[in-house]
Amino acid sequence: MRIAALRERLRALGALPEHEARVLRDWVQGAPHERG
After folding, report:
1. Are 7 and 20 in contact (CB under 8 A)?
2. Pairing with 12, which of 2, 20, 22, 32 sits 20 to 30 Å away (CA)?
3. What's residue 35's pLDDT?
4. What values do phi and psi take at 13, rounded to 5?
5. What is the spatial distance between Cα 12 and Cα 34, in angstroms, rounded to a whole number?
6. How far apart are CA 27 and CA 35, in angstroms?
7. Is residue 18 within a helix (H) or strand (E), and if so which, with residue range?
8. Residue 22: how many CB atoms within 10 A of its CB?
């Protein structure tokens, strides 16, 4: 999946820019996205 497609999907789900950045940062680092 391309990053642009992932960003579009996150936006379609209602993610704000800061949420999008956090999810992508965690994904790139291989970190779990289970923090509050």
Report:
1. yes
2. 32
3. 61
4. -85, 0
5. 21
6. 13
7. helix 17-29
8. 15
Q: What pTM was estimated for this model as a whole? A: 0.65
pLDDT tens per residue, range 4-35: 998 999 999 999 999 999 988 988 888 777 76
Residues 6+ apart with CB under 8 A from 15: 23
- Alpha carbon 6 to its chain centroid, in Å, reads 7
- Residue count of the chain: 36
Distance CA 36, CA 34 (A): 7
Angle between helices 3-12 and 17-29 (to 10 degrees): 140
Q: Given this model, what pLDDT does residue 30 score? A: 87
